[in-house]
């Protein structure tokens, strides 16, 4: 909904393309591309996937016609497989909303090639971190790696309470987000990888792990010992932390 409703996260993402050096290509690890193992999109002309239901009609009319990057997909697969993690090619999948929403806001011209790499809820946070570490060489190749999820993500809390976009944030959500900010700033990767189990109200903020796993991949892609920088912090619907971090 951030492409349709004014909010702080939308303002941040709308300026992200101007904040960062222009990449030659973008690799998105999206919470909404969840497969049994690692898969990478290889289509030269991916479509736009509207992988949601019951939302305003205007969202279904949006398209993100960026080109794919089969050469980058092959490079991603080679890097991840070199780390001992099998990768399968996905020649038909288009961009899910975990990819096209932030890209549409940050790079609206859709003129930078984009590839998606799946998460796998069947695997651990540590597995995703290892996938990210394998991708670290892409930084030197001017490829921007984006992990797209939410620092807190409990949609049942949104719908059950009929929360408005500017609803107040309860302590159980803010305490987890601030704990994560503290652990990331401290370089405590072990705790970050165990956040759902050991962070305050971890399971309430993440009934399923899918929206946190992209952060683990992005953290790894920054390289071993990467420093986390908090670029943005806000909430929408009170309980969805929209924090953004860079890892370098």
What is shown here, in short?
By secondary structure, this protein is α/β, with parallel strands linked by helices.
Structural notes for this entry:
The chain has 248 residues and is an alpha/beta fold. Helix content is 37%, strand content 17%. The chain has helices at residues 8-14, 16-19, 57-60, 70-82, 97-106, 125-135, 155-160, 171-185, 189-193, 195-198, 202-205, 213-221, and strands at 25-34, 38-41, 87-90, 114-119, 143-148, 228-232, 235-236, 240-241, 244-247. Helix 4 crosses helix 6 and helix 6 runs parallel beside helix 12 (213-221). It is globular and about 45 Å long.
Per the principal axes of the C-alpha atoms, what is the gross shape?
globular
Radius of gyration: 17 Å
Structural class: alpha/beta
Distance N to C terminus? 29 Å
Order of helices and strands: HHEEHHEHEHEHHHHHHEEEE
Q: How many DSSP-defined strands? A: 9
What low-confidence regions span 5 or more consecutive residues with pLDDT below 50?
none
Biggest sheet strand order reads: 4-1-5
Strand content: 15-25%
Q: Give the helix level as a range of percent.
A: 25-40%
Oligomer designation: single chain
Largest sheet: 3 strands, parallel
Query: Treating each run of at least 4 consecutive H or I residues as one helix, how many helices?
Result: 12
The averaged pLDDT comes out at 97
